[in-house]
Amino acid sequence: MNPVRHTNLDRAARFASQLRHRELPPDVLDAAKKCLADWAGVAIGARDEAAARAVRATVAGWQARGAAPVLFGTPTTPGAAALANGTLAHCLDFDDTHVGSVAHLSAPSWAAVLAAGTAQGLDERALLACFVAAFEVGARIGGQGYGVAVDHAGWHATGIFGALAAAAGAAAAMGLDADATGRALGAAATQVSGLTGSFGTMAKPFHAGKAAFNGVLSAELAANGFVPALDLIEPDGGMARALVQDGSHALPAADFDAGWEVLRNTFKPYACCLLTHASIDAGRALAAQVAGREIARVTAFVNPLAIHLAGKPAPTTPLEGKFSTAYCCALALSGHAATQGDFSAARIADAPLRALTAKVVLQADAMIAETAARMRLDFADGTQAETRIALARGNPDNPMSWDDLRAKFMPLTEAVLGAQRAADLFGALREFERPGALAALWQAAAPTR
User: Model's pTM, two decimal places?
Assistant: First the structure.
Protein backbone atom coordinates (compact mmCIF):
# COMPACT_ATOMS: atom_id res chain seq x y z
CA MET A 1 0.00 0.00 0.00
CA ASN A 2 1.09 3.62 -0.48
CA PRO A 3 3.54 4.55 2.34
CA VAL A 4 1.43 7.67 3.08
CA ARG A 5 -0.96 6.71 5.87
CA HIS A 6 -4.63 6.68 4.85
CA THR A 7 -6.60 6.20 8.05
CA ASN A 8 -9.94 4.99 6.70
CA LEU A 9 -8.38 2.83 4.02
CA ASP A 10 -5.82 1.29 6.38
CA ARG A 11 -8.39 0.53 9.06
CA ALA A 12 -10.93 -0.92 6.66
CA ALA A 13 -8.34 -2.99 4.81
CA ARG A 14 -6.85 -4.46 7.97
CA PHE A 15 -10.28 -5.22 9.40
CA ALA A 16 -11.57 -6.95 6.26
CA SER A 17 -8.40 -8.94 5.64
CA GLN A 18 -8.22 -10.23 9.22
CA LEU A 19 -11.87 -10.91 10.08
CA ARG A 20 -12.01 -14.27 8.32
CA HIS A 21 -9.53 -15.59 10.86
CA ARG A 22 -11.34 -14.29 13.94
CA GLU A 23 -13.94 -16.03 16.08
CA LEU A 24 -17.10 -13.98 15.72
CA PRO A 25 -19.55 -13.50 18.61
CA PRO A 26 -22.68 -15.69 18.43
CA ASP A 27 -25.03 -12.72 18.05
CA VAL A 28 -22.99 -11.40 15.11
CA LEU A 29 -23.10 -14.79 13.38
CA ASP A 30 -26.84 -14.97 14.03
CA ALA A 31 -27.32 -11.52 12.52
CA ALA A 32 -25.32 -12.53 9.44
CA LYS A 33 -27.51 -15.61 9.02
CA LYS A 34 -30.64 -13.47 9.31
CA CYS A 35 -29.26 -11.23 6.56
CA LEU A 36 -28.67 -14.28 4.37
CA ALA A 37 -32.11 -15.79 4.99
CA ASP A 38 -33.73 -12.46 4.17
CA TRP A 39 -31.48 -12.06 1.10
CA ALA A 40 -32.38 -15.49 -0.21
CA GLY A 41 -36.10 -15.04 0.40
CA VAL A 42 -36.41 -11.76 -1.47
CA ALA A 43 -34.12 -12.95 -4.26
CA ILE A 44 -36.03 -16.19 -4.84
CA GLY A 45 -39.32 -14.30 -4.68
CA ALA A 46 -38.05 -11.96 -7.41
CA ARG A 47 -37.17 -14.76 -9.85
CA ASP A 48 -39.56 -13.58 -12.56
CA GLU A 49 -39.20 -9.82 -12.11
CA ALA A 50 -38.47 -8.03 -15.38
CA ALA A 51 -35.24 -6.44 -14.14
CA ALA A 52 -33.97 -9.81 -12.91
CA ARG A 53 -34.76 -11.49 -16.22
CA ALA A 54 -33.07 -8.74 -18.20
CA VAL A 55 -29.85 -8.82 -16.19
CA ARG A 56 -29.79 -12.63 -16.05
CA ALA A 57 -30.25 -12.82 -19.83
CA THR A 58 -27.51 -10.25 -20.36
CA VAL A 59 -25.11 -12.20 -18.16
CA ALA A 60 -25.99 -15.46 -19.93
CA GLY A 61 -25.32 -13.76 -23.26
CA TRP A 62 -21.75 -13.08 -22.24
CA GLN A 63 -21.15 -16.86 -22.21
CA ALA A 64 -18.43 -16.35 -19.62
CA ARG A 65 -17.13 -19.54 -18.06
CA GLY A 66 -16.81 -19.78 -14.30
CA ALA A 67 -17.79 -21.62 -11.14
CA ALA A 68 -19.88 -18.89 -9.48
CA PRO A 69 -23.56 -19.88 -9.35
CA VAL A 70 -26.32 -17.64 -10.62
CA LEU A 71 -29.70 -17.98 -8.95
CA PHE A 72 -31.97 -19.58 -11.58
CA GLY A 73 -29.16 -19.35 -14.12
CA THR A 74 -25.98 -21.12 -15.17
CA PRO A 75 -22.63 -20.70 -13.39
CA THR A 76 -20.38 -17.96 -14.69
CA THR A 77 -17.54 -15.73 -13.57
CA PRO A 78 -17.75 -14.25 -10.05
CA GLY A 79 -18.32 -10.71 -11.31
CA ALA A 80 -21.13 -11.70 -13.65
CA ALA A 81 -22.78 -13.84 -10.97
CA ALA A 82 -22.56 -11.00 -8.48
CA LEU A 83 -24.24 -8.64 -10.96
CA ALA A 84 -27.15 -11.02 -11.59
CA ASN A 85 -27.66 -12.08 -7.98
CA GLY A 86 -27.21 -8.60 -6.53
CA THR A 87 -29.83 -7.18 -8.89
CA LEU A 88 -32.21 -10.04 -8.12
CA ALA A 89 -31.96 -9.48 -4.37
CA HIS A 90 -33.07 -5.86 -4.65
CA CYS A 91 -35.79 -6.22 -7.31
CA LEU A 92 -38.67 -6.32 -4.83
CA ASP A 93 -37.21 -3.54 -2.67
CA PHE A 94 -38.03 -5.89 0.20
CA ASP A 95 -34.43 -6.49 1.34
CA ASP A 96 -32.92 -5.25 4.58
CA THR A 97 -31.52 -1.76 5.10
CA HIS A 98 -28.76 -0.36 7.28
CA VAL A 99 -30.38 2.86 8.45
CA GLY A 100 -27.09 4.42 9.56
CA SER A 101 -25.87 4.53 5.96
CA VAL A 102 -29.34 4.46 4.34
CA ALA A 103 -28.00 1.63 2.20
CA HIS A 104 -29.16 -1.85 1.27
CA LEU A 105 -25.90 -3.53 2.18
CA SER A 106 -26.87 -7.20 2.22
CA ALA A 107 -27.94 -7.31 -1.43
CA PRO A 108 -24.53 -6.44 -2.92
CA SER A 109 -22.50 -7.87 -0.02
CA TRP A 110 -23.99 -11.35 -0.08
CA ALA A 111 -23.98 -11.36 -3.89
CA ALA A 112 -20.27 -10.55 -3.98
CA VAL A 113 -19.27 -12.86 -1.12
CA LEU A 114 -21.25 -15.83 -2.44
CA ALA A 115 -19.89 -15.35 -5.96
CA ALA A 116 -16.25 -14.92 -4.96
CA GLY A 117 -16.39 -17.33 -2.03
CA THR A 118 -18.13 -20.18 -3.85
CA ALA A 119 -15.64 -19.85 -6.70
CA GLN A 120 -12.86 -20.09 -4.08
CA GLY A 121 -14.43 -23.14 -2.44
CA LEU A 122 -15.01 -21.49 0.95
CA ASP A 123 -17.15 -23.23 3.55
CA GLU A 124 -20.23 -21.76 5.18
CA ARG A 125 -18.57 -20.31 8.27
CA ALA A 126 -15.91 -18.56 6.19
CA LEU A 127 -18.62 -17.06 3.99
CA LEU A 128 -20.41 -15.69 7.05
CA ALA A 129 -17.20 -14.02 8.23
CA CYS A 130 -16.58 -12.51 4.78
CA PHE A 131 -20.10 -11.12 4.73
CA VAL A 132 -19.63 -9.51 8.15
CA ALA A 133 -16.40 -7.94 6.88
CA ALA A 134 -18.29 -6.52 3.91
CA PHE A 135 -21.22 -5.23 5.93
CA GLU A 136 -19.07 -3.56 8.58
CA VAL A 137 -16.92 -1.72 6.02
CA GLY A 138 -19.89 -0.38 4.04
CA ALA A 139 -21.83 0.58 7.16
CA ARG A 140 -18.99 2.49 8.77
CA ILE A 141 -17.93 4.43 5.70
CA GLY A 142 -21.54 5.43 5.06
CA GLY A 143 -22.44 6.14 8.67
CA GLN A 144 -22.79 9.20 10.89
CA GLY A 145 -25.21 10.94 8.55
CA TYR A 146 -23.09 10.69 5.42
CA GLY A 147 -25.47 8.25 3.73
CA VAL A 148 -28.36 10.67 4.28
CA ALA A 149 -26.30 13.54 2.86
CA VAL A 150 -25.42 11.46 -0.18
CA ASP A 151 -29.08 10.60 -0.83
CA HIS A 152 -30.10 14.25 -0.49
CA ALA A 153 -27.46 15.09 -3.10
CA GLY A 154 -29.11 12.69 -5.54
CA TRP A 155 -26.79 9.69 -5.17
CA HIS A 156 -28.07 6.24 -4.21
CA ALA A 157 -26.24 5.16 -1.08
CA THR A 158 -26.50 1.47 -2.02
CA GLY A 159 -24.50 2.03 -5.18
CA ILE A 160 -21.81 3.75 -3.15
CA PHE A 161 -21.42 2.00 0.19
CA GLY A 162 -22.64 -1.29 -1.29
CA ALA A 163 -19.73 -1.23 -3.76
CA LEU A 164 -17.22 -0.63 -0.97
CA ALA A 165 -18.81 -3.37 1.11
CA ALA A 166 -18.75 -5.78 -1.82
CA ALA A 167 -15.08 -5.02 -2.49
CA ALA A 168 -14.21 -5.74 1.14
CA GLY A 169 -16.21 -8.97 1.13
CA ALA A 170 -14.85 -10.20 -2.17
CA ALA A 171 -11.29 -9.38 -1.08
CA ALA A 172 -11.82 -11.32 2.15
CA ALA A 173 -13.25 -14.27 0.22
CA MET A 174 -10.23 -14.26 -2.09
CA GLY A 175 -7.85 -14.17 0.87
CA LEU A 176 -6.25 -10.86 -0.09
CA ASP A 177 -3.88 -9.26 2.43
CA ALA A 178 -4.36 -5.76 3.82
CA ASP A 179 -2.34 -4.13 1.06
CA ALA A 180 -4.38 -5.72 -1.73
CA THR A 181 -7.66 -5.18 0.14
CA GLY A 182 -6.86 -1.49 0.40
CA ARG A 183 -6.25 -1.33 -3.33
CA ALA A 184 -9.55 -3.13 -3.92
CA LEU A 185 -11.33 -0.50 -1.84
CA GLY A 186 -9.61 2.25 -3.80
CA ALA A 187 -10.71 0.66 -7.08
CA ALA A 188 -14.29 0.36 -5.81
CA ALA A 189 -14.33 3.97 -4.61
CA THR A 190 -13.63 5.32 -8.08
CA GLN A 191 -16.57 3.30 -9.48
CA VAL A 192 -19.31 4.25 -6.99
CA SER A 193 -22.52 5.34 -8.68
CA GLY A 194 -26.29 5.24 -8.76
CA LEU A 195 -28.81 8.09 -8.97
CA THR A 196 -31.87 8.46 -6.76
CA GLY A 197 -33.66 9.78 -9.84
CA SER A 198 -33.87 6.12 -10.89
CA PHE A 199 -36.01 5.14 -7.89
CA GLY A 200 -39.23 3.47 -8.99
CA THR A 201 -37.59 1.94 -12.09
CA MET A 202 -35.56 -1.18 -12.91
CA ALA A 203 -32.38 0.84 -12.50
CA LYS A 204 -32.66 0.92 -8.70
CA PRO A 205 -32.12 -2.85 -8.22
CA PHE A 206 -29.47 -2.65 -10.92
CA HIS A 207 -27.54 -0.32 -8.61
CA ALA A 208 -27.24 -3.15 -6.07
CA GLY A 209 -26.14 -5.60 -8.75
CA LYS A 210 -23.62 -3.17 -10.19
CA ALA A 211 -22.26 -2.48 -6.70
CA ALA A 212 -21.70 -6.22 -6.26
CA PHE A 213 -20.07 -6.46 -9.68
CA ASN A 214 -17.85 -3.43 -9.00
CA GLY A 215 -16.76 -4.96 -5.70
CA VAL A 216 -15.75 -8.28 -7.22
CA LEU A 217 -14.04 -6.58 -10.15
CA SER A 218 -12.11 -4.37 -7.75
CA ALA A 219 -10.89 -7.34 -5.71
CA GLU A 220 -9.83 -9.17 -8.86
CA LEU A 221 -7.97 -6.12 -10.14
CA ALA A 222 -6.19 -5.73 -6.81
CA ALA A 223 -5.21 -9.40 -6.84
CA ASN A 224 -3.50 -8.75 -10.17
CA GLY A 225 -1.50 -5.76 -8.94
CA PHE A 226 -3.85 -2.89 -9.84
CA VAL A 227 -2.99 0.34 -8.02
CA PRO A 228 -5.74 3.01 -7.84
CA ALA A 229 -5.90 6.26 -5.89
CA LEU A 230 -5.76 5.32 -2.21
CA ASP A 231 -7.12 8.45 -0.54
CA LEU A 232 -10.64 8.50 -1.97
CA ILE A 233 -12.46 7.20 1.13
CA GLU A 234 -10.71 9.49 3.61
CA PRO A 235 -12.89 12.12 5.37
CA ASP A 236 -11.56 14.83 3.06
CA GLY A 237 -10.86 12.53 0.11
CA GLY A 238 -11.97 12.75 -3.47
CA MET A 239 -15.09 10.62 -3.07
CA ALA A 240 -16.43 12.75 -0.23
CA ARG A 241 -15.76 16.00 -2.09
CA ALA A 242 -17.41 14.75 -5.27
CA LEU A 243 -20.56 13.30 -3.72
CA VAL A 244 -21.43 16.13 -1.33
CA GLN A 245 -19.98 19.16 -3.05
CA ASP A 246 -21.27 21.84 -0.70
CA GLY A 247 -19.03 20.49 2.04
CA SER A 248 -21.92 20.18 4.48
CA HIS A 249 -20.98 16.61 5.40
CA ALA A 250 -17.57 14.97 5.57
CA LEU A 251 -17.14 11.26 5.14
CA PRO A 252 -16.78 9.84 8.68
CA ALA A 253 -13.61 8.49 10.20
CA ALA A 254 -14.17 4.74 10.31
CA ASP A 255 -13.93 3.20 13.78
CA PHE A 256 -13.91 -0.60 13.70
CA ASP A 257 -13.81 -0.93 17.49
CA ALA A 258 -17.25 0.62 18.04
CA GLY A 259 -19.42 -2.49 18.26
CA TRP A 260 -20.99 -4.29 15.30
CA GLU A 261 -23.07 -2.49 12.70
CA VAL A 262 -24.64 -5.74 11.50
CA LEU A 263 -26.46 -5.81 14.85
CA ARG A 264 -27.97 -2.42 13.92
CA ASN A 265 -29.44 -3.66 10.66
CA THR A 266 -33.14 -3.27 9.84
CA PHE A 267 -35.34 -5.88 8.18
CA LYS A 268 -38.41 -4.94 6.19
CA PRO A 269 -41.85 -6.27 7.09
CA TYR A 270 -43.30 -4.35 4.13
CA ALA A 271 -42.38 -4.70 0.44
CA CYS A 272 -41.55 -1.07 -0.22
CA CYS A 273 -39.12 1.75 0.52
CA LEU A 274 -38.03 1.68 4.16
CA LEU A 275 -38.86 5.36 4.54
CA THR A 276 -42.57 4.51 4.12
CA HIS A 277 -42.63 1.92 6.90
CA ALA A 278 -43.38 4.14 9.89
CA SER A 279 -46.27 5.68 7.96
CA ILE A 280 -47.57 2.19 7.17
CA ASP A 281 -47.40 1.31 10.87
CA ALA A 282 -49.36 4.49 11.61
CA GLY A 283 -51.99 3.65 9.00
CA ARG A 284 -52.36 0.13 10.32
CA ALA A 285 -52.80 1.51 13.84
CA LEU A 286 -55.64 3.79 12.64
CA ALA A 287 -57.30 1.38 10.20
CA ALA A 288 -59.88 0.14 12.71
CA GLN A 289 -61.22 3.69 13.09
CA VAL A 290 -61.71 4.13 9.35
CA ALA A 291 -64.30 1.43 8.57
CA GLY A 292 -67.56 2.94 7.32
CA ARG A 293 -66.36 6.53 7.64
CA GLU A 294 -65.51 9.06 4.96
CA ILE A 295 -61.99 10.45 5.13
CA ALA A 296 -61.59 14.04 3.99
CA ARG A 297 -57.82 14.27 4.40
CA VAL A 298 -54.84 12.22 5.58
CA THR A 299 -51.79 14.12 6.78
CA ALA A 300 -48.61 12.10 7.15
CA PHE A 301 -45.88 13.94 9.05
CA VAL A 302 -42.57 12.43 7.94
CA ASN A 303 -38.85 13.09 7.75
CA PRO A 304 -38.00 15.20 4.66
CA LEU A 305 -36.04 12.29 3.20
CA ALA A 306 -39.26 10.28 2.89
CA ILE A 307 -40.67 12.96 0.61
CA HIS A 308 -37.41 13.31 -1.29
CA LEU A 309 -37.04 9.59 -2.02
CA ALA A 310 -40.53 8.14 -1.56
CA GLY A 311 -42.79 11.05 -2.42
CA LYS A 312 -44.41 9.90 -5.66
CA PRO A 313 -47.96 11.27 -5.27
CA ALA A 314 -49.92 9.22 -7.81
CA PRO A 315 -48.12 5.98 -8.73
CA THR A 316 -49.15 4.21 -11.91
CA THR A 317 -46.83 1.19 -11.77
CA PRO A 318 -45.96 -1.31 -9.01
CA LEU A 319 -42.41 0.03 -8.83
CA GLU A 320 -43.66 3.58 -8.39
CA GLY A 321 -46.03 2.35 -5.69
CA LYS A 322 -43.07 1.16 -3.62
CA PHE A 323 -41.80 4.75 -3.57
CA SER A 324 -45.13 6.42 -2.84
CA THR A 325 -45.64 7.12 0.86
CA ALA A 326 -49.13 8.33 -0.03
CA TYR A 327 -50.06 5.01 -1.67
CA CYS A 328 -48.52 3.08 1.22
CA CYS A 329 -50.61 5.09 3.68
CA ALA A 330 -53.73 4.32 1.66
CA LEU A 331 -52.86 0.62 1.66
CA ALA A 332 -52.44 0.54 5.41
CA LEU A 333 -55.61 2.52 6.14
CA SER A 334 -57.53 0.14 3.87
CA GLY A 335 -56.39 -2.91 5.82
CA HIS A 336 -53.75 -4.18 3.41
CA ALA A 337 -50.52 -5.60 4.83
CA ALA A 338 -48.21 -3.98 2.22
CA THR A 339 -46.83 -7.34 1.16
CA GLN A 340 -45.52 -8.01 -2.33
CA GLY A 341 -49.01 -8.69 -3.68
CA ASP A 342 -50.09 -5.18 -2.73
CA PHE A 343 -47.63 -3.78 -5.24
CA SER A 344 -49.24 -5.31 -8.31
CA ALA A 345 -50.74 -3.63 -11.34
CA ALA A 346 -54.25 -4.62 -10.24
CA ARG A 347 -53.84 -3.16 -6.75
CA ILE A 348 -52.27 0.05 -8.06
CA ALA A 349 -55.28 0.47 -10.39
CA ASP A 350 -57.85 -0.10 -7.63
CA ALA A 351 -60.20 2.90 -7.75
CA PRO A 352 -60.91 3.27 -4.00
CA LEU A 353 -57.19 3.02 -3.23
CA ARG A 354 -56.37 5.65 -5.84
CA ALA A 355 -59.03 7.95 -4.41
CA LEU A 356 -57.66 7.55 -0.89
CA THR A 357 -54.09 8.03 -2.11
CA ALA A 358 -55.13 11.37 -3.56
CA LYS A 359 -56.28 12.49 -0.12
CA VAL A 360 -52.88 11.91 1.48
CA VAL A 361 -50.75 14.98 2.11
CA LEU A 362 -47.10 14.56 3.13
CA GLN A 363 -45.85 17.11 5.63
CA ALA A 364 -42.09 17.36 6.08
CA ASP A 365 -40.87 17.59 9.66
CA ALA A 366 -37.12 17.58 10.20
CA MET A 367 -37.66 16.78 13.87
CA ILE A 368 -39.10 13.37 12.95
CA ALA A 369 -36.53 10.61 12.47
CA GLU A 370 -36.37 8.63 9.24
CA THR A 371 -37.73 5.65 11.20
CA ALA A 372 -40.69 7.51 12.74
CA ALA A 373 -43.92 9.14 11.58
CA ARG A 374 -47.12 10.82 12.73
CA MET A 375 -50.49 10.54 11.00
CA ARG A 376 -53.65 12.61 11.38
CA LEU A 377 -57.01 11.73 9.84
CA ASP A 378 -59.62 14.39 9.18
CA PHE A 379 -63.04 12.82 8.67
CA ALA A 380 -65.86 14.36 6.67
CA ASP A 381 -67.92 14.76 9.84
CA GLY A 382 -65.31 17.11 11.31
CA THR A 383 -63.73 14.65 13.76
CA GLN A 384 -60.09 13.65 13.82
CA ALA A 385 -57.92 10.68 14.75
CA GLU A 386 -54.18 10.73 15.22
CA THR A 387 -51.28 8.42 16.09
CA ARG A 388 -47.50 8.56 16.39
CA ILE A 389 -44.99 5.84 15.56
CA ALA A 390 -41.74 6.35 17.42
CA LEU A 391 -39.89 3.50 15.67
CA ALA A 392 -41.08 1.45 12.72
CA ARG A 393 -41.26 -2.30 13.08
CA GLY A 394 -38.13 -4.14 11.89
CA ASN A 395 -35.61 -1.71 13.36
CA PRO A 396 -33.04 -3.03 15.88
CA ASP A 397 -34.99 -1.70 18.87
CA ASN A 398 -38.28 -3.00 17.43
CA PRO A 399 -36.92 -6.08 15.68
CA MET A 400 -38.24 -8.90 13.55
CA SER A 401 -37.56 -12.31 15.10
CA TRP A 402 -36.59 -15.51 13.31
CA ASP A 403 -40.30 -16.42 13.35
CA ASP A 404 -41.12 -13.07 11.75
CA LEU A 405 -38.47 -13.66 9.09
CA ARG A 406 -39.90 -17.11 8.39
CA ALA A 407 -43.37 -15.60 8.02
CA LYS A 408 -41.87 -13.25 5.42
CA PHE A 409 -39.71 -15.91 3.73
CA MET A 410 -42.36 -18.55 3.14
CA PRO A 411 -44.86 -16.56 0.99
CA LEU A 412 -41.98 -15.23 -1.08
CA THR A 413 -40.53 -18.66 -1.83
CA GLU A 414 -43.41 -21.15 -1.71
CA ALA A 415 -44.72 -20.20 -5.15
CA VAL A 416 -41.26 -20.82 -6.60
CA LEU A 417 -40.01 -23.81 -4.60
CA GLY A 418 -43.10 -25.39 -3.10
CA ALA A 419 -43.89 -25.35 0.61
CA GLN A 420 -41.65 -28.21 1.71
CA ARG A 421 -38.56 -27.13 -0.23
CA ALA A 422 -39.04 -23.57 0.99
CA ALA A 423 -39.29 -24.71 4.60
CA ASP A 424 -36.24 -26.94 4.23
CA LEU A 425 -34.21 -24.10 2.73
CA PHE A 426 -35.17 -21.71 5.50
CA GLY A 427 -34.05 -24.28 8.05
CA ALA A 428 -30.71 -24.69 6.27
CA LEU A 429 -30.14 -20.93 6.12
CA ARG A 430 -30.99 -20.52 9.79
CA GLU A 431 -28.15 -22.93 10.60
CA PHE A 432 -25.93 -21.85 7.76
CA GLU A 433 -22.66 -22.58 9.55
CA ARG A 434 -23.43 -26.29 9.16
CA PRO A 435 -21.85 -28.05 6.16
CA GLY A 436 -24.26 -28.57 3.28
CA ALA A 437 -26.27 -25.38 3.79
CA LEU A 438 -24.60 -23.59 0.87
CA ALA A 439 -25.34 -26.51 -1.44
CA ALA A 440 -28.97 -26.40 -0.33
CA LEU A 441 -29.21 -22.77 -1.43
CA TRP A 442 -27.78 -23.38 -4.88
CA GLN A 443 -29.88 -26.53 -5.37
CA ALA A 444 -33.07 -24.69 -4.44
CA ALA A 445 -32.38 -21.94 -6.96
CA ALA A 446 -31.13 -24.16 -9.79
CA PRO A 447 -32.43 -23.18 -13.24
CA THR A 448 -35.67 -24.80 -14.33
CA ARG A 449 -36.25 -26.08 -17.80
Answer: 0.90
